[in-house]
Structure to design on (480 residues):
DNA sequence: CTTCTGCATTGATGCAGATCAAGGAGCGCC
DNA sequence: GGCGCTCCTTGATCTGCATCAATGCAGAAG
């Protein structure tokens, strides 16, 4: 029965429930059994967001947590004077809702069209309480995020503009690869401004650095992305 | 019996076990019952480190996890060419061992004399498996660390040198306050170089910024620390 | 087709913080 | 006391990236 929907439906996310969810194995839900997934199904709300639409805003009451199913979300913090730091880009399988107490610790909005699976905070809380293996999975996600954050501190505190851009491109390539899209052409749906705000640079510096890498024949700029021409050199720069 | 040691011993850490541990309530161990603490006691090794001594090294096999009982530990990552980013300073109550898989993700060494409570990885792993409330507590610690890391990204990516120093001083003040030592005099046992490597600056810039703040009558430099003279102004700078 | 609008690129100039280079200042040790 | 050592401060200069300012360019609207 589930199989019908899962195997035959085109839009497997919307209609077939968690069991057929295409990011299930990459997400926190991979820790759950078939019976638990059916339980989960009743609690989840699928939501679609257009590009630039807001998922949630920093310091607002944290009503929901989200699993990203499709698309890209930018996560960022703002200072009162408008300076912005993007703290990460969420891809399918990523979970939003680790680093918050009663209010969201950062803002999130859709880079492109995003489909997400939302849970109310209360449903989420009771799920976590009832299922230690889910908690364990969430903890793995949290420590992984923490490791990434520490890498990013190294990048922001000590690396040059060129190193930052190269590390960013390699990281994005690896993230797409883990999602089953390995390619030397790295999709970059976000704007130059987003990249700049993620890397602690200005848009001009990002642009100049990409042109320099193009002139070096290290990369090739393509529509909505970059093709990596000399990954050996890039890995070398990223390591050192 | 435990009470005797706990109440009467001067060196309560070494002899009286976990129940008498002075950082228990601030540490991950606060989630454990009295019986569990006795169990824990058998698994823990108290260790002392002199200033500058190494607790563990990045990329080495992760043999142990640690609760810091006393003193300060610097946590840092190095690039092959020697550039260093300090990713945090651990104080009593802090747990070291969240962000690692089989190898340590960063290096750690003692800033001053440190006393720590160590557990083997295997003991730690089985403990976590057996006790969901401990896992929950660890997860809280992890998400808190993640929030701090995100704040630090904002600081490193978008704040000026003066803002970085001021945020740092206020954060250290608040951390000491939480440990029951609230004071306008903030102890800074780490070197200027450590502060610089934490804030993504050079030692000269840290020094100059501190002298500027002194001339402003915002702070007063005292031996091994700083007295905050104008916290209102500092809070204002930190917020904006 | 033209104009508009929102990025992205490119160039000229400026400046915050890095780098280079001397001194202090505290402190243990002979 | 004097010497060496480490850490900190201060000054002079340099530079990588920011800032300021056009210009390009592609898709949307008219």
């Amino acid at each position: 029965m589930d199989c019908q929907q899962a195997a035959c439906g085109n839009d497997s996310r919307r209609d077939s429930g968690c069991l057929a969810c295409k990011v299930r194995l990459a997400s926190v839900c991979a820790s759950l059994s078939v019976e638990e997934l059916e339980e989960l199904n009743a609690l989840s709300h699928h939501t679609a967001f257009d590009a630039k639409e807001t998922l949630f805003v920093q310091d607002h009451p944290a009503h929901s947590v989200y699993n990203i199913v499709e698309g890209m979300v930018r996560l960022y913090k703002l200072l009162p004077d408008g300076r912005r730091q993007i703290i990460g880009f969420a891809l399918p399988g990523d979970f939003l809702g680790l680093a918050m107490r009663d209010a969201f610790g950062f803002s999130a909005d859709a880079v492109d069209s995003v489909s997400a699976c939302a849970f109310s905070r209360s449903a989420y809380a009771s799920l976590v309480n009832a299922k230690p293996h889910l908690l364990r999975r969430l903890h793995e996600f949290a420590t992984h995020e923490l490791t990434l954050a520490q890498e990013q501190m190294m990048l922001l505190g000590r690396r040059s503009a060129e190193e930052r851009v190269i590390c960013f491109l390699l990281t994005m390539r690896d993230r797409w690869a883990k999602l089953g899209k390995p390619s030397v052409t790295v999709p970059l749906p976000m704007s130059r401004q987003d990249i700049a705000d993620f890397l602690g640079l200005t848009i001009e510096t990002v642009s100049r650095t990409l042109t320099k890498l193009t002139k070096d024949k290290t990369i090739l700029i393509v529509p909505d992305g970059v093709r990596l021409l000399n990954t050996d050199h890039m890995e070398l720069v990223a390591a050192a």
